From TrEMBL:
It comes from the Bacteria. This is DUF1116 domain-containing protein. It comes from Nocardioides simplex. InterPro entries: AllG-like, OXTCase_su_AllG_h-dom.
Length: 423
């Protein structure tokens, strides 16, 4: 029988205070855009990354499996669907988990070696987070389990046209500080998960001086790239995800801490990591969800094919800043009253209030930040996340909120309490 003493509780509180300080003192800057093979440590040409806790190829199903196959085809690792499947089966094409490489991916989260990634450096602690590029607002996207000629052409356009221009602008600016930009976007109606309209505009403004110089110098594709950024309000999501990853990873390895460092899901289910438990994943069933579907779609179409954008909630954004973005009710359903109360609930399960990210509606109270496994179980309140909803036939069919399952928190606390010195 595990006995938790006052001394161990006090030690955990101290560890959580340290982890919280490391998280909230993080200073994420986007410093570059490069192909994954050039900047992600250990990345090989035969590797395809996807979202969620790592699994063998045989366990990937539905849209997430289709997205992996599409990634292999796009990268030229196979010439046909059948060849891609055979490659995954015999190991000549490798599948990996994004988080194992310091990366995060939206929905299926597919990375291949040639795909451009944002490089975000935490200048306080020195760690780096990566996120791949936004494909555009077309509902049929690789990260939503779709691969066809149109998806292929859009991915090539990102690789060859958009990413080089954005990367050059970022380098010319000496990097862009993301934390103050995110803080301002919260005051302008974003929560930088399901709503990124203000943050995208602010980022465009940050790179504008470099963009004007590039136009004067005749750099190709600049006008086209800026028009793409201007019409895609979700562009900034990948930057907020990379910033959150670089910030959350600063908590990793804080011995004795019960704060969550990652939340993600795959086609198999939901999973979390905990600061004091290293890189171990604790898994549960798929998340609980409520949502609003696009016209022509029904509830029975909803499927899970992965998702690591809840890294934003891990650092006090997204659903933990929902009261900043009441306009989301039109997109994902609900009401202002429900969104406000849901946001307030999150203070009951977190370590503290974020000193940088504040909610105007709550008299500029800091967002609830640092999910504590112990508080989730003690209160019965499950973390809430804003997400896009995928359909079983691929593509986005709606948006809504999800709640993490209780089981992964139960398993994490059991593992924590079984550590040497805990009893």
């Amino acid at each position: 029988m595990v006995t938790v003493t006052a001394e161990t509780v006090s030690a955990t509180d101290a560890a959580n205070a340290l982890a919280f300080e490391r998280l909230t003192s993080a200073d994420p800057w986007v410093v570059d855009v490069r192909p994954a093979r050039e900047v992600i440590p250990g990345y090989t040409d035969d590797l395809v990354l996807t979202s969620g806790a790592p699994m063998p190829w045989s366990e990937y199903t539905g849209g997430q499996r289709e997205a992996l196959i599409g990634g292999a085809l796009f990268e030229g690792l196979a010439g046909t669907r059948e060849e891609a499947i055979a490659g995954f089966e015999d190991g000549s094409i490798k599948v990996g988990a994004c988080h194992d490489y310091g990366a995060v991916g939206s929905l299926a989260g597919i990375y291949t070696a040639s795909m451009p990634v944002f490089v975000v450096e935490n200048r306080t602690h020195g760690n780096i987070g990566f996120c791949n590029f936004y494909e555009g607002k077309e509902p049929r996207r690789l990260n939503y389990g779709c691969y066809d000629e149109g998806v292929h052409e859009r991915l090539l356009h990102v690789n060859e046209v958009l990413a080089p221009v954005v990367g050059e602008a970022i380098r010319r600016r000496g990097g862009v500080a993301l934390k103050p930009l995110i803080a301002r976007a919260l005051r302008m109606g974003d929560e930088v998960h399901s709503r990124n309209a203000a943050a995208s505009v602010l980022f465009n403004r940050e790179i504008l001086p470099a963009i004007l110089d590039m136009i004067e110098q005749g750099v190709p594709n600049v006008r086209e790239t800026m028009l793409h950024l201007a019409e895609n309000d979700y562009f900034f999501l990948r930057l907020s995800m990379a910033a959150a990853k670089a910030s959350a990873d600063a908590m990793k390895g804080v011995e004795g801490s019960t704060l969550v460092t990652a939340m993600a899901f795959s086609c198999r289910g939901f999973a979390i990591k905990v600061a004091g438990l290293g890189d171990q994943w604790f898994e549960g069933p798929p998340p609980l969800h409520q949502g609003k579907l696009f016209a022509g779609h029904t509830e029975d179409e909803i499927t899970w094919m992965g998702g690591e954008s809840p890294i934003t909630e891990t650092v006090g954004l997204g659903g933990f800043a929902q009261a900043c973005a009441l306009s989301l009710q039109e997109y994902q359903g609900g009401s202002p009253e429900v969104m406000i109360e849901r946001n307030k609930e999150m203070y009951e399960i977190t370590q503290g209030e974020n000193p940088a990210y504040r909610i105007p509606l709550f008299s500029f109270r800091g967002t609830p930040t640092g999910v504590d496994v112990r508080k989730v179980l003690a209160t019965g309140i499950l973390p809430v996340m804003d997400v896009g909803l995928a359909g079983r036939d691929g593509g986005q069919i709606g948006a809504g909120v999800i709640r993490a399952p209780r089981e992964c928190f139960e398993d994490a606390l059991a593992a924590f309490e079984a550590l040497p010195g805990r009893h």
